Model the fold of this input.
Amino acid sequence: MQIPDGFNNVARYGRGPWENYQDRKYSADLGLYQTKVKALYTPYIRPQENGNRSDTRWLTLTNGHGVGLKVLGRADL
Done:
């Protein structure tokens, strides 16, 4: 999925603030986190999966004017 440039602000409710995966998600607290899109990327030396945030209930991507997209997760998962 691609969105237009400028949607740089991320707010989400899930585990964080650092990346976390199924095998170590309990090291990350469940809460509300806000950051920039570029902060979700981890520049590993060897390319691999990165940036996962477990148990995310919802996520918004907005531009500088507060216009954006909100994604809701299913509550029964």
Summary: The chain has no helices and four strands. The two ends are 22 Å apart (CA to CA). Residues 10-72 form one domain.
